[in-house]
UniProtKB/TrEMBL annotation:
Domain of life, per lineage: Bacteria
Keywords: Hydrolase
GO molecular function terms listed in the Swiss-Prot or TrEMBL record: hydrolase activity
Gene3D superfamilies from the UniProt entry: 1.10.150.450, HAD superfamily/HAD-like
InterPro entries: HAD-like_sf, HAD-SF_hydro_IA, HAD_2, HAD_sf, Pyr-5-nucltdase
Keyword Hydrolase: yes
Protein name per its UniProtKB record: Hydrolase of the HAD superfamily
Length: 226
């Protein structure tokens, strides 16, 4: 019998250390796109990119909503990232633990599918997840609605015929977990790599909407039911 729990794993700063280098390159690429196609200065682009990420969960959502940017073009241009694979790394114990973790495993990321596939291949997890749920799959009413949009969570779970109480979201981003918990999902806060919030505050205390905080994914094996 298949395990009833369904694990929804985030990608960046959950399965690998994106803050080490990948995020810096992505941020620079997104800002360059905004300079090129929206006519902004580098300073204006950096401010707007951060604002949209904080407000909507992804820079793309703000650009689509306020500037009519085409998602496919934006994702293709900003995620080329030559040499990405050469500096990606996860943690061996974590990656081994995911393979042994009982239950179904899905990837749920605000990144595009091509980027997610490159990262999973580089860190050796290509064959672990039965499905990749990427930002291309998070479209509602013609607009990008990535995590933490609660409506998107509901729609995705309905498409997969999953109940919220079956699902465990493993994430580094608290606002995504807050949204998932409000729908009845269990939440695990991964803190191996990300120790500070976007505003620079240290992330120390576990909020009430987080069921469990871990500093390694291997820790999930010690209590896989959360």
């Amino acid at each position: 019998m298949r395990h009833s729990k369904v694990w929804l794993f985030d990608l960046d700063d959950t399965l690998h250390n994106a803050s080490h280098r990948a995020f810096a390159e992505l941020n620079a690429s997104m800002s360059a796109y905004m300079v090129t196609y929206l006519g902004l200065t580098e300073e204006e682009a950096a401010v707007l990119r951060t604002l949209y990420w904080q407000r909507y969960g992804a820079t793309l959502s703000g650009l689509q909503r306020h500037h009519r940017v085409k998602p496919a073009h934006f994702l293709a241009e900003t995620h080329k990232l030559p040499g990405l694979e050469s500096h990606l790394h996860g943690h061996g114990h974590d990656l081994s633990a995911i393979r042994r973790l009982p239950g179904r495993k899905l990837l749920m990321t605000n990144a595009p599918r091509s980027y997610a596939e490159r990262v999973l291949s580089a860190i050796g997890l290509t064959d672990v997840f039965e499905r990749l749920i990427c930002i291309e799959d998070m479209i509602l009413f013609g607009h990008s609605r990535p995590k933490p949009d609660a409506r998107m969570f509901r729609v995705v779970l309905a498409r997969l015929k999953l109940r919220p109480e079956q699902c465990i979201l493993v994430e580094d981003t608290l606002i995504h977990q807050k949204s998932a918990r409000s729908l009845g999902m269990s939440t695990v806060w991964m803190q191996r790599w990300l120790r500070k919030a976007a505003d620079g505050r240290r992330l120390q205390h576990r909020p009430a909407y987080v069921d469990r905080r871990v500093r390694s994914l291997a820790a999930l094996l010690r209590s896989p039911q959360v």
